[in-house]
Each structure stands twice: as C-alpha cells, then as structure tokens.
Amino acid sequence: MKILVVEDNKKLARFLEKALIEEGYEAEVVGNGEAAVYSRRIGKTSG
Question: If you write DSSP's letter for every residue of 35-47 in order, what string do you get?
C-alpha cells in the first residue's frame, strides 16, 4: 500500500517515512499541499 505524507517539518517527515517503511508501506513524503496535489496529478501515489 502506498501512503502520501504531507508534512512541512522535515524531521517529523523523515520519522514518519521511516516508520511507515518499517511497517511495510511504500511512503512518499512531500513538504506542502501544492506538492501533494502535483504528486497525485502525475500519478505517483494511487488511492
């Protein structure tokens, strides 16, 4: 399962990404809402 994490705090984003990957998820981390919308439009994250 792919999960899109939108978090502007870089330290927290890295922590969340690492934790999700350790639990078996495919994580994509972006730093703001605009990047999240762009990511969804180009199809990097399904769901």
Answer: HHHHHHHTTSS--
The span from the CA of 20 to the CA of 14, in Å, is: 10
The span from the CA of 14 to the CA of 11, in Å, is 5
Residues 44 and 6 sit within 8 Å (Cβ to Cβ)? no
The tens digit of pLDDT for each residue in 7-41 reads 999 999 999 999 999 999 999 999 999 999 988 88
The pTM score is 0.76
DSSP code of residue 23: T
Q: What is the pLDDT of residue 39?
A: 85
**Segments making up each domain of the chain, as ranges:** 2-41
